Amino acid sequence: MSRPERVLRAGLAAVSAFAIFYLLPGTLRLPVLVYHPAARTLAFTNVVGGVAMRYFGDLLVASAAALLAAAAAVLLRPARRTPLAIAAGTTLSLVGLDLLFYLSRLLAAR
Amino acid sequence: MSVVFEGAARTLLILHAVLGFAAVFAASHHAAHAVLAALGKPQLRALQRFGWIAPAAVIAQALCGLALYPVYRVRVRAADLERNAPFVVQLFDFKEHLAALALALVIAAALAGRNSAEAPAQVRWPVAALSSTGAAFLWAAAIIGLYVTARHPV
Q1: Chain A: residue whose CA lies nearest to B119
Q2: Can you give the pTM of this predicted structure?
Q3: Which residues constitute the domain of residue B113?
Q4: What's the structural domain count of chain B?
Q5: CA distance A40 to B1
Q6: Do B85 and B145 contact (CB within 8 A), yes or no?
Q7: CA-CA distances (angstroms) from residue A101 to A97, B87, B98?
Q8: What residues of chain A lie within 8 A of the CB of B71, using their CB?
């Protein structure tokens, strides 16, 4: 596998993992780091009330998943590789799924 | 009650806007050069140049936005928008999700694009797709951000 293809596969794996792990913790209400800006405290919880913010925690989980997926794509080299067009299509579909989910929440709020 | 970075909120907001537009334009340039490269036109230097400018601008504006977020949450969202404009609250949340996805897309496209100019078309097209999607998300996030700021700046 050439270097450009290896880097691209790592990037596609990273974006896919980011899209999955950005969406899941919030929708499944999994505990993440939650910051309370008024009290200036951090807590690992799934209870988010008032002005508490779970965005930082969700972003942290997604970024960590993306880095791990990119590292795994570089280190693990399966004998049978998915064609790049299919891998890219899958990645963009996952991103599209996130977009549709958040768009549906926005439109439901109208 | 004081919120972190509250004293510097307006400076941070201006910086966030400037860096946001730098990110939008750098990502758009990267996307345009990635598409040209996919079409077979030599774009090695441009993809290498915007391959560091675009992610640097996106990361810098994201850090600025994250620093500003607590002030928005308390002084804008809780104090005004949740009562008077709940749809704008949802719009802002949508913008944050777009920006997060754009962050991943632009960084991945930039890293992959740095090596893709001389690569076969099967590598160049996915880079162009990642980069164009990231740039489109950034444009949408920037326009929504401007609208929310026009409604109620920090």
Answers
A1: A4
A2: 0.96
A3: 2-151
A4: 1
A5: 10
A6: no
A7: 6, 16, 12
A8: 37
